[in-house]
Amino acid sequence: MGFKKISTFNGIILALFSIFSCSKNNDFLASNDIFISEYFVGSFFKNSAIEIVNNTNKDIDCSKYHLDIFNMDELSKNIELNTVLKANSSIVLLNKTFDSTLLVNDNLNLIYLDDDYLTGDRYIELRNDKNKLLDCMGIKGYNLSYVSATSLIKLEKYFSGHSNFSKTYFVEISKDNTKYLGNTLFPLTYEELMYGPRLSSSYYSPSLSREDGSPTGGYSEVNIISLGDGDTTVFSFDNDKDLQRESVRYLLINTPEIAHSSNEEDEFMGREAKIYNNNILTNAKHILVQTNKDYALRETYGRLLGYVWYTNIENPTLNDYRMLNYELLVNGYCRYDSRTKYENMSYLDMYYTNYFDYAYEYASNLRLGVFSK
């Protein structure tokens, strides 16, 4: 049911990044040797840093390389990298007023800039002494925030420089997390990312809500009472004393509407989303519903808000469950409701919403389902 809409401003930003990401069809590998691997922006934007990796087995004289930072189309700062970058290592460039106490790793190769140039919204190019483009971040001609209070970390699958920036090359992690700066640690692989978040026992609670009605973030096994459209199902909660028969509205997504009378028509992909959702649920061996901790328990029409997890394994572990909300988005069966950032439910240093951010970028970039027209 389509009661939520993406705000106009957020929609414009998402559309711009999607349009730009589509240009990666004309992308070419700019550099295998040296590239931007991470862009960190803290809650206080002056705490910003960018990491550059030497992906070779030999030392690189970085005096031959520079970062160009643009304000719209105009070059506003040229930063020379006057250092030697050891083989298979990285350098971290930090804003002048970066709070060094935020750094949790020792022995970082640091370069402090002479001002606070890194803001998370400027177009940045990495070039060599022949002015060849080696890598880039952001959209030239626009000052739009593409990293804010978080880190963009390049997926190992895309470990190289690229002529065009796409957010599908990166994952976004929980905010103010600096532990991935200056090392080869990585939260998860591309294959794990496409699988989606896993269910953690740390969120278990005997009830999905507290006495005051706020959600605990817990999860409960459910049975299907009646199937709805692509993002709503009625379940029975046999193991939760506070809930019985509930219509559950899936968090963070909005599938197209389906016709409810003969004088209505299905919205594009509405019928396909309904079939996809209902097929998964009817074939599942076990289904869980999880609330989102400390946010709203119900939406405007009284429906329970939740993440729906399922497995086709008879005797599963928590690791065997998959999040249906996420699968609907990554496969293009729904739009992303990005108005609310639920930043307290996470798996492997990524908020659930970080996974959904990536699923949106992936599906829209490939023009899957609802993004195909």
What layout of secondary structure does this protein have?
Elements: H1 8-22, E1 29-31, E2 34-41, E3 48-54, E4 60-61, E5 65-71, E6 74-80, E7 84-85, E8 90-94, E9 110-112, E10 123-128, E11 133-137, E12 150-154, E13 161-162, E14 170-172, H2 190-195, E15 219-227, E16 232-236, E17 245-250, E18 253-254, H3 270-283, E19 286-290, E20 304-311, E21 322-323, H4 324-330, E22 335-336, E23 346-347, E24 350-351, H5 352-365
Describe this structure in words.
- Mean pLDDT is 90; it is low at 1-10.
- The strands form 7 sheets. A 6-stranded mixed β-sheet has the order 9-8-3-2-12-14. The chain has a 5-stranded mixed barrel with strand order 15-16-17-20-19.
- The protein is an alpha+beta fold and 373 residues long.
- The longest helix is centred in the N-terminal third of the chain and has 15 residues, at 8-22.
- The protein has helices at residues 8-22, 190-195, 270-283, 324-330, 352-365; strands at 29-31, 34-41, 48-54, 60-61, 65-71, 74-80, 84-85, 90-94, 110-112, 123-128, 133-137, 150-154, 161-162, 170-172, 219-227, 232-236, 245-250, 253-254, 286-290, 304-311, 322-323, 335-336, 346-347, 350-351.
- The chain contains 5 helices and 24 strands.
- Strand 2 (34-41) and strand 3 form a beta hairpin.
- Helix 4 packs parallel to helix 5.
